[in-house]
Amino acid sequence: MTTSTLSSPAVSDALTEKPRISSIDLMRGIVMVIMALDHTRDFFHKDALMIDATNLEQTNPLLFFTRIITHYCAPTFVFLSGAAIKLSEQRKSKKDLSIFLLSRGLWLILLEITVIRFSFFFQLYYDVTIFQVIWAIGFCMILLSAVVHLPFRLILALGIVILLGHDALHLIRLQPQDPFYTLWTFTHQVGVAEFAPGKSAFVPYPFLAWFGIMLLGYAFGRWYTSSFTSERRRKLLLVTGSGAVFAFVVLRFINLYGDPAPWSEQKNVLFTFMSFINVTKYPPSLLYTLMTLGPVLILLAFMERWQSPTLKPFIVFGRVPLFYYVLHFYIIHATAIVLYMILQDKSLGEIDLHFDKGFGGITPGAGVSLGVVYVIWISIVVLLYPLCNWYNTYKSKHKNWWLSYL
């Protein structure tokens, strides 16, 4: 492995105790910062709970692109998680890796339904539990704990088959009264599964398509091993990324397969373009995956040569992703509650936050403009940096087993 793939000179001291692939950390950090924009909008924007930002009959261009840019976060995060798993094979035996993936996956699912769920709702009624990206990553890791024992080419082939074929499964639509509805909801069909009266699970991240993305990320991680030079890897990244973008444009233009929501001509060129790129995230369609991961691969090729001190915050975020993820939800939600109390202009005893229903005290229609949301987003990211930098430094200097789980 050439030195350009490891931590750059700009990342010194605590960031270089052990070899890291800074381009992967950088990309992960960038999408995590973008992710915070989407979640800040969810809690602060006055229209967040009122309209669908990607519904062309309700949205406007600024709101639409604010939402669309965050589409790049989840697939990049899952894809790079797969790559990190492949790279860990250089330090672990297959048996040790399998055990770690199983335990790590179970831990992530536990976090999703406890710590992360509480950050959404600030209550413990468990009337609704949302199974989002952390659950999906956790369950995919559990599956991968078995799959890693298969031959590499078979793992790659399985990832390709899922990527290309899972959209055909949209033809299978089950209803809540069907016996396999809950299983199918967690596997492929976005929906709400009721476990008991008043207790349900909303599953926007069924695992199947995400598992395909993680498998492809696992295969992609091989490009970062010592058998690939930096130059060879850059060429592969550029060719594969460009090919994915080209395939997206062709398949989307044909409008026959790859996404359940076809594009159509709109009232003007801009809205027609918005319709063209308005692909399906839940679950991630083939076209959604090509549109998001194609540019990511191209950027990763250029990031191999990016060396600047200004990139350090993104690299820090990328090195403590779970810590950042959990922390940013609590900060965003708590700050939104404080702002909501201020906007009500009432005495403390008169304020009713309604934690027993809705989005953890956030009333639909309450909040601020999208411009103010951007200011709040940047402020929260700035606040997160010293906290994440402290934890990254602590993690790099300590070898406690539990640190690998956070």
Automatic annotation (TrEMBL):
Residues annotated as domain Heparan-alpha-glucosaminide N-acetyltransferase catalytic? 20-232
| Listed Pfam families | HGSNAT_cat (PF07786)
Taxonomic superkingdom: Bacteria
Keyword list (alphabetical) reads: Membrane, Transmembrane, Transmembrane helix
User: Which InterPro entries did the record assign?
Assistant: HGSNAT_cat
Q: Where is the signal peptide?
A: none
**TM annotation in the entry:** 64-85, 97-122, 128-147, 154-172, 207-224, 236-254, 285-302, 322-342, 362-387
Query: This chain belongs to which protein, by name?
Result: DUF1624 domain-containing protein
Q: Which organism is it from?
A: Chryseosolibacter indicus
